[in-house]
Amino acid sequence: MALxxxxxxxxxxxxxxxxxxxxxxxxxxxxxxxxxGYVKAGLWTSEAVVEHPNAVRQLHxxxxxxxSNVMQTFTFSASEDKMESQYFEHAExxxxxxxxxxxxxxPVAATMCIGPEGDMHGVTPGECAVKLxxxxxxxxxVNCRFGPWTSLKTMRLMKEGLWAAGLKAHLMVQPLGFHxxxxxxxxxxxxxxxPFALEPRVATRWDIQKYAREAYNLxxxxxxxxxxxxxxxxxxxxEELAPERGFLxxxxxxxxxxxxxxxxxxxxxxxxxxxREYWENLLPASGRPFCPxxxxxxx
Amino acid sequence: MALxxxxxxxxxxxxxxxxxxxxxxxxxxxxxxxxxGYVKAGLWTSEAVVEHPNAVRQLHxxxxxxxSNVMQTFTFSASEDKMESQYFEHAExxxxxxxxxxxxxxPVAATMCIGPEGDMHGVTPGECAVKLxxxxxxxxxVNCRFGPWTSLKTMRLMKEGLWAAGLKAHLMVQPLGFHxxxxxxxxxxxxxxxPFALEPRVATRWDIQKYAREAYNLxxxxxxxxxxxxxxxxxxxxEELAPERGFLxxxxxxxxxxxxxxxxxxxxxxxxxxxREYWENLLPASGRPFCPxxxxxxx
Amino acid sequence: MALxxxxxxxxxxxxxxxxxxxxxxxxxxxxxxxxxGYVKAGLWTSEAVVEHPNAVRQLHxxxxxxxSNVMQTFTFSASEDKMESQYFEHAExxxxxxxxxxxxxxPVAATMCIGPEGDMHGVTPGECAVKLxxxxxxxxxVNCRFGPWTSLKTMRLMKEGLWAAGLKAHLMVQPLGFHxxxxxxxxxxxxxxxPFALEPRVATRWDIQKYAREAYNLxxxxxxxxxxxxxxxxxxxxEELAPERGFLxxxxxxxxxxxxxxxxxxxxxxxxxxxREYWENLLPASGRPFCPxxxxxxx
Amino acid sequence: MALxxxxxxxxxxxxxxxxxxxxxxxxxxxxxxxxxGYVKAGLWTSEAVVEHPNAVRQLHxxxxxxxSNVMQTFTFSASEDKMESQYFEHAExxxxxxxxxxxxxxPVAATMCIGPEGDMHGVTPGECAVKLxxxxxxxxxVNCRFGPWTSLKTMRLMKEGLWAAGLKAHLMVQPLGFHxxxxxxxxxxxxxxxPFALEPRVATRWDIQKYAREAYNLxxxxxxxxxxxxxxxxxxxxEELAPERGFLxxxxxxxxxxxxxxxxxxxxxxxxxxxREYWENLLPASGRPFCPxxxxxxx
Lengths: 299, 299, 299, 299
Fold this sequence. Notes:
homotetramer, globular, Betaine--homocysteine S-methyltransferase 2 (chains A, B, C, D), BHMT-like (chains A, B, C, D), S-methylmethionine-homocysteine S-methyltransferase activity (chains A, B, C, D), HCY_dom_sf (chains A, B, C, D)
């Protein structure tokens, strides 16, 4: 399968989605740059862009190689020429933003950081989606705060809400790259492990392939990640959807599909892991027998 | 506390260790660059150095900012002008290498990738250490294959072996950055999660602070990491040993000690996490209730 | 506190409940007698009553000593002179039974083996409760199939249903003595561990004290157990509610409240366990690091 | 296969073992009677024998039906006419007891409650076995305090010790019916769950079948259990060794081998559990996602 496909890069995001393409988002900036030593947890401000531009550029490069079609600016406030994306936990505030942006005559993608229970005022995901589309958003969805499966549940509710209201929009999802079945309405920040002990929850690439397939099957065509999504997670989306898209991302030159790169290992029991069924069915151990598997949120 | 301390960088490694300094090693190259998209798992070759020098340079930079005093070459075969480090699982082979290097009149650091049960021929860690020192190594220790606590157990045996033989050497440890209490004699490659589902085993920064303290208390003065050690893990070593060393690493400008950066968070229950006791005692959940906590090695 | 209180034993069950008394049910017969060697799993028939009457009598005796006020017949079909209790998974069938029994002019207690999702035809717990009371039941509730916390959730829905319909009835709950957060609509029989590997799920006495308190706070006054409830679990209900009832069960002569019996142990660290806070907060390990904490139902 | 085989009951225990028979011990009295309401934890005294003889007799009956050939007296001090068994944690004390009993001209079975690390004074299991046999014991082994697999490890060391000393004796093992991989030298009493939260550690019948097979393969011919061994665990020993012994225990009339009793269940997914491979390979969930899988001993 051919790698990359840069000619596509010239089309606008709505053109792509309208023509049925899958658009792959990017991943985690703040949490990833914190681990690399350029962002301070707690404040999570983005001065790295000016202080250490090479480090930020390098991470962008990694996401691009992994297959990201869209680079969201790392500042959480700057604008791009192709779209506007924001991050809200109140439906009303999101609606205001969409209206302002709409006047600027750009395609608007509005994602909210809500779970299946809806926003802080009890507005359901379905209602949020309807409000955003009525305000002018072309792309609606969720990002951050919840893990992949919870976010897909929210997306299903958004989709059903739009359908029931007779509205149409492109769907977009960018969940955490962490397993978070135990987080409450407030999302991952309320779990006791946030933000310095989330390691055992990091998704494997195989988890992300399953997520990407499920997102695609749900009709979502803008699929990416948020905190915890490392470049290899983005690549996993691009590899899972390579049959639909017709090409692999650049960094697949360093990745054998479903572990196939192990087939030349000298130890036979490691070679035996070079197959899809193996990784699809593996239940990975935590190596932490004194730790539980779930936590209770602090709020 | 002052940051960094670059003037020290001119001394040779033996001079430093002889004068009682703590030397901080670097961390994971292959596994980390695999996740960034530049190395292929299975082959684990290092062509990234020529193909993507910026990516490799960036990772070196991150380890330097995190406090590494020594950059081991990423090629696993090239030489540096200050020391020679190698990676052996047979005592005899390690001895040959030390003898050759010794003739080159350089200080030799010889680490073996063994656990408490010793090498492939049943040579105990104590005997391995004795052989290496007799062959001319100035620094002996272990790297890779086993988790921090298992590696410290091996180091204790090496130290006792040297002591019993009336020999002296500097001690060096560079374990995996993963929790691996269940790996057998062959180390982590034999566990079913290797290499694509090790995520739940990644150590937190707090685990690594405990490891660094225990290594120091055991008399080890060259303390670093191997596969799985990300830049923030190296920083955790440097922060834990800052009282002894008198300075913090550069990237501590982006890290509040023991979570102190959370003390300005808007949510009170997150502010309550801005203290040492909290993170020292937290037992982090895996978020994976269908997974076990330990695995059985394949061999 | 006085033990037992046999004079009370002469009142009818409705008299007791009407006067505000707490009635304590019995526990597990089939599963308990299977472990003792008198019942065959799968068929779960009750021929032990005739084949081994001493064994059955002994278990009844243990539940009586533990505080049970009511002995449900072990046959699942015989009648008692004080009440009728049955076990249904279809609301309609339960209603027929209540109507027939009502004609016999006895107080009817009707429990269904449903969870929060309701019966097999989607009748909600609230609707089930309303139907049963309208058909003539004086006591309604749930038994078997689900763990204590799931059953209390179902009871809350039944209570709300009755309240919304302006109806009144006594509430009764007899859940499994197992931790079953992962069972689906079909209950514990669908979990892969049923019926021969449920051991790790057995509730502690302290779990049951919490359950009893929560049931009481919810307004339930007939509190017992079903499969998995051993005599000491029933005693835990009776001990938790001793302040309200004014007496302890007979077998509390062999049980120090909240572990107080350990206060004479020779080892100080075991004496330190002779207190309520210790047992209330303990998170007991499974001793099975290769096993998960949750399972997926087979159906 | 024939049930029971009472004619054998007349032979003395040494005659049986000398002729190559497998002798099946009994199980848990104190912990089991505590749960039934007749023994107080902490003191663990045996006044139930006089206070509630029916309850004690019933438990004896259950063990007999399950296949026990030997009933150890519940008093921990009374004597039987066929053998003497005691329970020691100091080799020296055990030796004194054996010498005294030997003078009484009875066959002596001496078991110690030690683990692989030996007695309180560092006497290894091998040395303990040698001392006991030299003092006159005909049967040596371990009971209580440690789980099945730890106890088998200790037995292997005892066997090797005897072999190295050129001595011969019958081997006997009666471990806990709990999973205890995490208990230290002091055994299960030092674990935080002792004695009121051991539920999640209870072995399944299938665990016990594996234990019985492994004990048999190790050459042990007196195989039983201690605290936590319920009647159905003893039956599991008798069923596993039925091919060697030529008969099943009485209570196997209520037990289908390897779950075969489920083959008439109405639900097909439960019928699918009526086979050996299913239960042999099942990894049972704890149902407790907030709990760890291992604990740290208090001492």
